UniProtKB/TrEMBL annotation:
<dbReference type="Pfam" id="PF06441">
    <property type="entry name" value="EHN"/>
</dbReference>
<protein>
    <submittedName>
        <fullName>Epoxide hydrolase</fullName>
    </submittedName>
</protein>
<dbReference type="InterPro" id="IPR000639">
    <property type="entry name" value="Epox_hydrolase-like"/>
</dbReference>
<dbReference type="InterPro" id="IPR029058">
    <property type="entry name" value="AB_hydrolase_fold"/>
</dbReference>
<comment type="similarity">
    <text>Belongs to the peptidase S33 family.</text>
</comment>
<feature type="domain" description="Epoxide hydrolase N-terminal">
    <location>
        <begin position="2"/>
        <end position="99"/>
    </location>
</feature>
<dbReference type="InterPro" id="IPR016292">
    <property type="entry name" value="Epoxide_hydrolase"/>
</dbReference>
<keyword id="KW-0058">Aromatic hydrocarbons catabolism</keyword>
<dbReference type="InterPro" id="IPR010497">
    <property type="entry name" value="Epoxide_hydro_N"/>
</dbReference>
<keyword id="KW-0378">Hydrolase</keyword>
<dbReference type="GO" id="GO:0016787">
    <property type="term" value="F:hydrolase activity"/>
</dbReference>
Length: 389
């Protein structure tokens, strides 16, 4: 990975000429805080070193493979242990391969971190199509192809007949679908978000009904971004593709809102962390193709089971229930990082999974690979330990 100098020169000009909106003193209440973004853009313009970030990322062994006509970028690091278990890690939005990529050393070489070498993994971290250095899809339909793409990457390209899978956010939706559609390839799944069960509203328990009502309230408070990305991704894409400050404002607000940071985004993420993520979207021009995935899956469009949605693939998360009468059969662990939130009722989870384990993690938010890497890695190791043979 080596970004052309001309891309960085163009970025510098755009940052210098940023046009700023009015600041009515609302702080973060109306979205991204103008004062904070001015500070971040100033750091980006004057101090952030993309070449240093690029060098750090390039320590991960990266490859590309053509699968079903789609160029997929991925990290592949073999484990240093007696019998490493293949593990595919799938990121979400607004994330990139850099987030789960931070776990690679801990998962591949546990002895280096004082853990048991028998817990080593062969780690694969793909970039979702439309994100980062994977190809941008040229038409609709990529979402429903993702489980098959991952199976072909793992089995045909890399030679792993069976493997473990972990994902957060959209990556959890992909991982759940992978287990639903290709259980013969999946040892088990470790996810940060549950699959949505098919349920008649008349069948809801009192606890489930309260859970659904709380989700509706949360969708009103936090779901505006998803509604835009689901309904008008192209309209949004012009501004985010043309303005680096606009792109940073759209992404960084989510890292602050979803991270376990008590309103102080830099309590969990450094400016370099945030800007490395923003830069991967910027230098690849993939913000439009990344948000379009929300339209393909109608993501976050069904806060209540009674809400109608367009036809979408099964198991895609909150937007689409599993097929009637179907559950995810491979062993599954839901490691839920929910700062200030409540998990679904056990009955809700058991509608979707045949063999679930549920753990509400004591700290960490939407980006656990960067917020609580040790906690996440230990949980992954423990879950897959009895599934290795």
């Amino acid at each position: 990975m080596a970004v052309d100098d001309a891309v960085l020169d163009d970025l510098a000009i755009r940052l210098q000429r940023t046009r700023w909106p009015d600041d009515v003193g609302a702080g973060w209440a109306d979205g991204t805080d103008v004062a904070y973004l001015r500070e971040l853009v100033g750091y980006w313009r004057d101090r952030f070193d993309w070449r240093a970030a690029e060098q750090r990322l390039n320590r991960l062994p990266q490859f590309r493979a053509g699968i079903d006509g789609v160029g997929v970028h991925f990290v592949h690091e073999r484990g240093r242990g007696p019998d490493p278990l293949p593990l595919v890690l799938t990121h979400g939005w607004p994330s990139t391969f850099a987030e789960p990529g931070a776990l690679v050393p801990m998962l591949t070489d546990p002895a280096r971190f004082g853990a048991d070498p028998a817990d080593s993994f062969d780690v694969v971290v793909p970039s979702l199509p439309g994100f980062g250095f994977s190809d941008r899809p040229r038409g609709p339909g990529t979402a429903r192809r993702l489980p098959r793409l991952w199976v072909r990457l793992m089995s045909e390209v890399l030679g792993y007949r069976r493997f473990a899978a972990h994902g957060t956010d959209i990556g959890a939706f992909v991982t759940n679908r992978l287990a639903l559609e290709h259980p013969e390839h999946v040892v088990g799944v470790h996810v940060g978000h549950w699959a949505e069960p098919d349920v008649d509203t008349a069948e809801l328990t009192g606890q489930e009904r309260r859970f659904v009502e709380a989700r509706v309230r949360n969708a009103e408070a936090e779901g505006g971004y998803a509604h835009v990305q689901r309904t008008r991704p192209q309209s949004l894409a012009f501004g985010l593709t043309d303005s680096p400050a606009g792109l940073a404002g759209w992404i960084v607000e989510k890292w602050r809102s979803w991270g376990d940071c008590a309103g102080d985004v830099e309590r969990r993420f450094t400016k370099d962390d945030l800007l490395t993520t923003v830069m991967i979207y910027w230098v690849t021009g993939t913000i439009a193709s990344s948000v379009r995935l929300y339209k393909e899956w109608a993501l976050a469009s069904r806060p209540h089971p009674a809400c109608p949605v367009p036809p979408v693939p099964p198991g895609a998360g909150e937007s689409a229930p599993l097929p009637a009468g179907r559950r995810i059969e491979p062993p599954a662990r839901l490691a839920l990082f929910l700062p200030g939130g409540d998990p679904p009722p056990v009955s809700w989870i058991e509608r979707a999974y045949a063999r679930p384990q549920v753990a509400v993690m004591p700290r960490g938010g939407h980006f656990p690979a960067m917020e609580e890497p040790q906690l996440l890695v230990e949980d992954i190791r423990a879950f897959f330990r009895p599934l290795r043979h």
